[in-house]
Amino acid sequence: MKTLPYLLIALFLFSCSDSVDENPAPQPKDDDPTLYFPPINGSDWATMTVAEAGWDQTKINELISLAGNNSSRALLILKDGKIVVEAYFGKEFNGTTNFNVSSNWYWASAGKTLTSTLVGLAVKENFLALSDKTSEYLGNGWTSLTATDEQKITVLNQLTMTSGLDDGVANSDCTLPSCLQFKAVAGTRWAYHNAPYTLLDKVLENASGKNLNTYLNETLELKIGLTGQFIQTGDNNVYYSNARSMARFGLFLLAKGKWNNEQILDETY
Question: Domain containing 117 — which CATH number?
Answer without folding.
Answer: 3.40.710.10
